[in-house]
User: What shape does this take?
Amino acid sequence: GVLIVVFFLMIRRPPRSTLFPYTTLFRSELMLMSRELIQPSRNEDGCISYRFYEDQTKPNHFLFFERWKDRESIDAHFQKNYFKVFAERFPDMIEGKGEINIYEIKHTEMI
Assistant: This one.
């Protein structure tokens, strides 16, 4: 079967006591980092598709939607240098920890 990775994250909100535009800064940096992650990830063996979306009804809520051949391919992806750089930098920019779900798809029906 195919494995689907879904990673939800939300840009950190600024403290009420500051005028510094954290959200704008973090948004710009996260968007740049994410764009830099897409093409190398798509070129990996085992990557079927790799996409990055923003929720159109919730500003600053993002989603990675990835399809991988198998768990070994995902594990190899997590070990790539460009992924490690992203993984080290993004936690300071988001609310909470983010949420990564991996689903194993046994059957897909196209309609």
Notes: The helical segments are 22-42, 71-78, 81-89.
